[in-house]
Structures are given as structure tokens and as C-alpha cells.
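Fold it.
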Amino acid sequence: MRTGVAVTPNLDEAERMIREAQQQGAQFVLTPENTSTISLLKSDQIRREDAHPGVARFAALAGELEIWLLIGSMGVEVGDGKFANRSFLFGPDGRKVAHYDKVHMFDVAVSETECWTESDTYQPGDRAVLVDLPWGRLGLSICYDVRFPHLYRDMAKAGARFLTVPSAFTVPTGQAHWHTLLKARAIECGAFVFAPAQGGIHENGRETYGHSLVIDPWGGILAEAGGDPAILIVDIDPALADEARRRLPSLTHDRAYSLEPPR
């Protein structure tokens, strides 16, 4: 996607693309981080989950189309003037199955002219989330989380075959790290990685990297978008995760160790 500031047009465009994906045969559809608005301004966020037009709308859409639907994230108020950057998973019966609040805040000076402080707007989550889909277990994350490999390893050791990384990566970090980080998480975990991403120059002037990716458990890229809005349709064989873990069973090889102080 290339989300703008106003919520309703973004929801309209997301729905249009979700419908198109379902018409092409998709059973599980994922959208990027910041589906409802790309703005970090508190004035552009919706106040409560139960008042967010995207929540009811996407729940109804998942039920109508009878698909599993992951909305990469939408901002919802959690109190004290803070918001959660929240992923929503809806089931084919139209109910909200789970949500995940982004744990790691992107408080980074990317360059001398590009600085981000997500913690000014968002409150970090404090839990990892796993969901059982018909095809296997799913582990949820968002964007900057991808730089914290222990999160993914923990989810993989708890049985996750699929990992989601909906994102709105900056261009400098995307060019340098996007592919490498996502491939590393897939290889380390022996899991599929689904990473729908924002791309292009947005209404508020922000530029995101794009390049939505689907990566297999051996680190191969199954599908990749460019910098413009697009729909990727990918056939997944869940057994490849089991095969990768049999071939390279590193998830079973962790050992306890101590860290000695420097001498």
C-alpha cells in the first residue's frame, strides 16, 4: 500500500485490494503496517478500538469473503494519551481472533535529517502472540521487531511455521537491511516470513521502501513487490517448514551458557 493521512480513503483502498486478492484465490490476506493512516500525529489516530471504523469493517469483510485477514497495524488508544501500534487477525467467520501490539519502538536517527521517535505516540506491547491457522501456527510481529531475533526464535520454538512482519520501512534502512533481516529470520527459524510493506512517497511526505516479500523456510524469496502498491499471490506448502527443520534442526540445539566479564 501507499497509505495517506485520512483514514476512510485508506480503508477503502485496503478493502479494494483485499477483495481483489480474494478473487484471485487468496485464503489468507495480509496488509502492511499503518494500514489506516501513515501519520504518527496523535490527532490522526482513532481514539478506541471499539470506535475504530477499520476494526468492524475488516471483521465484516473477512466474514463476507470467508478468508483469514491480517491487518498489519492500526493505531488504537490504550490510555494516558498513548496508542498501540496493533496488528489485527480476523477469521473467516468474521470475528477478531487475536491482536498483537508492536513490542519494539522505532526510536532511531536514520540520518542527520530523518529521525523517528515512535515512543512519543505509541506504547510498546509486552507479549508475543501465536495463533493456530488451518495450515499451522502463526507468529505475529511488526516492522522494527525484525531486528530482535530472539522474539522470532521463541515463537518458532513454540511451533510457529509462519511469521508476519507487516512494515513501513524507511528507504535507507530498507535498502541496507530489509532483505537480509527477513531472510535471516526465515533461515534461523525454519519458517515462512510474510512481510507486506508500505512503499513510495506518502501524502505527508514520508517515503517508505516497499518491496513486500514472501520468504520460504530455507531463505528463498518466493515473491517480491517493487516500490508501488501491488498484490502478491503466493502458493505455500507448509510442509517445507517441517522439512527445513529436519534438515537443519538448530531450534533444538540451544544450550545454556554464561557470559564472562571482559578480562
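The chain has a mean pLDDT of 94.
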